[in-house]
Amino acid sequence: MHTHRVTVLAVQAAGLARFDPDAGAPWQPRALYLATHPHSAVPALREVVGERETAYSVPDEQVTATVDVGPWLERKIAAVLAHRSEVERGAVPGLLARLSRPEWKRVMGTEWFIRHGFATTAPARTELTV
After folding, report:
1. 110-117 and 31-36: which strand pairing?
2. Which of 13, 23, 128 is nearest to 70 (CA)?
3. How many CA atoms lie within 13 A of 39 on its CB side?
4. Cα separation of 47 and 44, whole Å?
5. Residues 53-109 pLDDT 10s
């Protein structure tokens, strides 16, 4: 959550001409996609990481982009496991480290996002294929 807040503020500040005049012309993207979990994904997550770690989710209809990251799952696993101190202390990466590959695919093979628009148009639901 805190990362989302900081990122949104940074993107908003990038569009302010007077914020840092020496940085060049202000620029602001039309949208920013923030990672989330839909309510429908929570039961599978809770089976793996427990009740305390999956409290934050959003109604499924708020998810505006879904990405199948299955083709990159091995890279994603390696990135999560690279957080050695988190794995060793039993934080979420440590819980995930104990998963079998089929469990990884079920729990981590999809990523969901909410479009945070800076333009005035409403977002459409998007299925992204990479």
Report:
1. antiparallel
2. 128
3. 5
4. 5
5. 555 789 999 999 999 999 999 998 898 888 888 778 877 777 778 888 888 888 889
Place of tokens 């979420």: 92
Three-state secondary structure call for residue 37: coil
Query: What are the DSSP calls for 43-105, one per residue?
Result: HHHHHHH-TGGG---B-GGG--EEEE-GGGHHHHHHHHHT-HHHHHHTSHHHHHHT--HHHHH
Q: 């990479």: which residue's tokens?
A: 130
* DSSP H/E element including 106: helix 101-108
pLDDT digits (tens, 9 = 90+) for 14-30: 777 777 778 778 787 88
CA geometry: angle 114, 119, 122, nearest 5 deg: 55
User: Two tokens at 117?
Assistant: 């628009």
